[in-house]
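Entry 0007
Protein: palmitoyl-CoA hydrolase
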Amino acid sequence: MKLLVYALRLRALARQAATWEHLGPRSSQHPGERCWASTKAFVTRSDLLFRACVTPRIMRPDDANVAGNVHGGTILKMIEEAGAIISTRHCNSQNGERCVAALARVERTDFLSPMCIGEVAHVSAEITYTSKHSVEVQVNVMSENILTGTKKLTNKATLWYVPLSLKNVDKVLEVPPVVYSRQEQEEEGRKRYEAQKLERMETKWRNGDIVQPVLNPEPNTVSYSQSSLIHLVGPSDCTLHGFVHGGVTMKLMDEVAGIVAARHCKTNIVTASVDAINFHDKIRKGCVITISGRMTFTSNKSMEIEVLVDADPVVDNSQKRYRAASAFFTYVSLSQEGKSLPVPQLVPETEDEKKRFEEGKGRYLQMKAKRQGRAEPQP
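Output (structure tokens):
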């Protein structure tokens, strides 16, 4: 009964938030910018960037796990929606062939602070670089406690989009350039573009194997916690092209990674970070996708899970099953009080599992060194 009353209160607050769009424009801290509280935010061109303001959204019980922590996949989907809006708007800002921006890659995303049921998520996005055929979008997520007014940054993400023609989905259009206030901004953006392009090429065929089920696996082994989810792609999952939204794919990937982590440590778990998500190929409406997850590495208090997405075009005999996306998710185990707990150590059995464990250890130590480097005071 208490949960029902709480849900009704949240619904009333959501309806109240929805009425904000009729109140007109809100002030912006950035000169030359305007935003409206609506699902399709209105923006004008600033001196450098396009900025999108997305309607504040109240986190509901179905957005969270049993402990009340919002699923990482829910946040990833909101991030992708904001990125898709601003990049599609920018790519159609000049006269020419109309297009929709498709997600190509998500850089490493850290979950800086947990978000809980009843809090309001504020998602903002801005374009930080454009190449001839791609758009870099920076997205920030703030959580607000509407009872106390406290706000905190929960996520920062960088996404890359490519504009696909509405007339021919295989045709990539040119992106309108942005004007930079400083030459260094363009040069830094070009370096980021070249780096992500190189990494995408390196990872495209790196994860060609398939997660196979094992009978009667031992606890703490890779086989014991590995999980798969099969999903039929429907119209509600897709863009105007009839291809799956990147946010839908990321949400499903996070769900599978969460199941793997929960099976391994059998406690409350939350997403700590997501390594670069690479979208290798488009997924068409009507495909059956298999999202598979397996644990690759454990430190004392974190778990790395590799997630693979394979698409099977069951209505098209001319195309075989293919790898559509891949990523590494990092989870942590939490106590009932929300404090991090030690996780059971993974026991790799096969040579491939031992190899993936060492690769995961290398990624873990590399990110640990980066965090320590940022934390050190500058002389």
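Curator remark: The CA atoms of residues 304 and 330 lie 4 Å apart. The radius of gyration is 21 Å.
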